[in-house]
From TrEMBL:
GO terms for molecular function: hydrolase activity. Coiled coil: none annotated. SUPFAM superfamilies: Metallo-hydrolase/oxidoreductase (SSF56281). Keywords: Hydrolase. It holds the Pfam family Lactamase_B_2. This is Metallo-beta-lactamase domain-containing protein.
Amino acid sequence: MVIDPYLSDSLAEKYRGTRFPHRRMMPAPVAPGGIAHVTAVLATHAHTDHLDPGTLPALLAANPDAVLVAPASVAETALARSGIAPGRLRSIDAGGTLHLNPDLIVAATRAAHESLETDDQGRHRFLGLAIRCGGATLFHSGDTIPFEGQVEEVRALGADLALLPVNGRDAERRANGVPGNLTVAEALGLARRAGIPAVVAHHFDLFDFNTVPRAEVEAVAARTTDIRLAPARTGVIYRLEEDGR
């Protein structure tokens, strides 16, 4: 399974010469067509670094049996950017559940990428996704900040591990059309209140204008003892044990 893959430089091309040129801070760790054995590709929303036309066609062509899971509110965009046939798209909205196979279930929650947004049919534009597989539940919040009712929705998932964005937010980014996310402290607060024992902190070290220093995340991880906090790093395999460690 692959979640929100951005393995191209499509945003650097789109924003070349602008205030925020979206140049990668590191090369893509793998070519989109170099990932095999994929059952499903999941997209939490339609921002290009999560639903990337420079990544999806090659990734899904290399895995012809894989489906693309995307918010129902952006289904047409997902089809256009991926190039797949409509039969390979699985649409979902907050509160919905998809049974992709007997051992792979995806459930959706709301997410607030600075705000909760819906389309003209009331379908949410930003989602969190809970993946249940092999007896464990992984929660990927999508891009989000805290919002009313979030803790209750997430706690109900019974997640063993959360993948949470920690690049934060500020007025300058917001004024330039770059909505933000949780801070590291907010991510830990959500995990504690929702009863999640382990967190992989991510969504940093990709664009220099939209990150938080890695040293800051690592320092918080080093002094956090009640929750296992792992700052995401390429080339590392993270294994979830039964005790959440």
